[in-house]
Amino acid sequence: MLSLRDFELAAARHLPHPLFAYVSGGVEDNRSLQENLSSFAEYEFSPRVLRDVSRRSMATTLFGVRHEAPFGLGPMGISALVAYDADRVLARVAAAAGIPMVLSGASLTRMEDVAAVAPGHCWFQAYLPGEIELIKSMASRAQNAGYETLVLTVDTAARANRENNIRAGFSTPLRPSLRLAWDGMTHPKWLLRTFAKTLYKTGVPRFENAGLDRGVPIISRRAARQFNRDSLSWEHVRVMRDAWPGNLVLKGVLHPEDARTAASLGVDAVIVSNHGGRQLDGAVAPLKVLSSVAAQSGSMKVLYDGGIRRGGDVIKALALGADFVLVARPVLYAAAVAGESGAAHCISLLKEEVKRNMASLGVCSIDEIGPECLHTKAQHSAYSHFTNPKETT
Ligand SMILES: Cc1cc2nc3c(=O)[nH]c(=O)nc-3n(C[C@H](O)[C@H](O)[C@H](O)COP(=O)(O)O)c2cc1C
Known about the structure:
This protein has helices at residues 4-14, 17-24, 31-38, 79-82, 86-97, 111-117, 132-144, 163-168, 178-185, 188-202, 234-243, 256-264, 286-295, 311-319, 329-361, 377-382, 389-392, and strands at 44-45, 60-62, 65-67, 71-73, 101-103, 122-126, 149-153, 247-253, 269-272, 301-305, 324-327, 374-375. By secondary structure, the chain is α/β, with parallel strands linked by helices. Helix 12 (256-264) crosses helix 13 (286-295).
């Protein structure tokens, strides 16, 4: 495995088709998903040379905590069906690498059990309806479990139109069918090492962090998942700000005015994200709006996610105004194909790429990464001040 993409190719072979489609897919025509990846190609680097970069460091501080790299692991629901015990595996691997991991509100492992394996390294991401009592009680559950950073995902007012899931035979909960059984049997490594092992050790997994009680099981003929997030509003963010003493982060902000509102309500950070192209197809690629959102964020921190596949992508997002970046799909693919060591290898590949690229750009610290690292059109015209002597004579 030489790059993050290698894990995706391996996961496509390893996982039953419905599961791979669930992770890799976007929504409707996958326009945002593709744009997230291709938007990075619109920016090029402007390397500087001969700057003695022998003592460079990737370490950075966020919410007063030092992290060994400027990226963490983004939240992904149902991970524990994709890779064995994935929530705890990713939390442990992140802690060992000195970076944070965000546990999804649609995860299948109790938030208390995940926090216990990586104290201080886990953040909790909540999906919440606009119900004040539930917001308050989830905030105290997360606080009692030891979480210091709460991420509220705000880009899911409607259930996404994930046609790819329906076509591939994936649903939540999964409905038992002959097709699903066949997909499992034709992927025996996943069937034995992830699925059968999970059933044997813990029984049929359930959504454990959607509320105070256990949610529906992940496999069920009859159960249905509740979806009632369309009344969530800024008023609830205000309530949450009062109820939550730790760091409050809004995930899924793409408009500068929304960032300004968040800052005025005392939110600590926004994550500029279109949910990996999984919510509104055609939603702008977050990289394209990152600098405008950052410009309106005041003292809030700005995080970025969407399409991070290379160390160079991390650096481009930082250069455009992000303080920190989240990587999601690749690390889940890595955990699926090779468990804890796979996920650890994925993180170290990304770290190595960031550090190598910092050297080539002539920067020694994350704080030095700014717009001047990128070759923009404006910079191109600035070069015209350096007149070509051959032209002037
Ligand atoms: C399988 C999967 C499950 C996800 N589940 C959640 C979730 O529960 N909560 C959330 O806020 N975002 C969720 N996301 C979105 C990611 O946190 C992140 O925004 C997105 O994947 C970034 O795109 P990338 O993976 O292509 O880099 C999920 C993404 C994937 C791929």
